[in-house]
Amino acid sequence: MKSEKDKMLAGELYDALDPELVESRERARDLLHDLNVTREKEQDVRRRIMTELLGSGGDSVWMQPPFYCDYGSNIYLGERVYFNFNCIVLDVCEVKIGDYTFFGPAVQIYTGTHPLNASLRRTQEFGKPVTIGSDVWVGGGVIILPGITIGSRTVIGAGSVVTKDIPDGVVAAGNPCRIIREIQEDDGDAGSRPSVP
């Protein structure tokens, strides 16, 4: 018989009030509290907390508190991922993020969702994993919905709501987020500015 945690990670209906899951969330909340009250000079403390909190990548993440998540242990980061202030990752399913990906302030990544049936929604929820490639730039205030994949080297314009997968190497923006154009090799050369919404 599957545990509620196993069902949660598999994207199946599960009970979020299961004692094991409640304990895991409380552990994350305590670590996040400690992280979010650190001072800028306490980088070693932040590094220790992030290494303990995250599934991987805590040893190289560049984090500007405050930061919030559900479990932390379901977040897997590549090398040197950057989170600006006030980002939220609801990681009831896995969130995988590639190397050198940057998140602007107040980015929200959601894996959790709920049944449409109201009576079922009272006791059950489920999730869908999110995957973000390497060298992605996600502008401030972006919302990434459950089940989304964003390709490598892509730029998501500020304030976008990403409701469907976005491929590699494009600029995409809007609500709902849509592809604006492909990124060219000469975009952002010295003396010029990329045209990103």
Summarize the structure.
The protein has 197 residues and is of the alpha/beta class. 20% of the residues lie in helices and 24% in strands. The strands form four sheets. The chain has a seven-stranded mixed sheet with strand order 1-4-7-12-15-17-18, with no helix packed on it.
Please characterize this protein's 3D structure.
The chain is of the alpha/beta class. It has one domain (4-182): Hexapeptide repeat proteins (UDP N-Acetylglucosamine Acyltransferase, domain 1). It has 4 helices and 18 strands. The chain has helices at 4-9, 19-36, 43-53, 118-121; strands at residues 62-63, 67-69, 75-77, 82-83, 87-90, 95-97, 102-103, 108-110, 112-113, 126-127, 130-132, 137-138, 143-144, 149-150, 155-156, 161-162, 170-173, 178-182. A 7-stranded mixed beta sheet has the order 1-4-7-12-15-17-18, with no helix packed on it. β17 and β18 form a beta hairpin. It is globular and about 55 Å long. The protein starts with a helix and ends in a 15-residue tail after the last strand.
Keywords summarizing the entry:
197 residues; alpha/beta; UDP N-Acetylglucosamine Acyltransferase, domain 1; five-stranded parallel beta sheet; 20% helix; globular; disordered C terminus
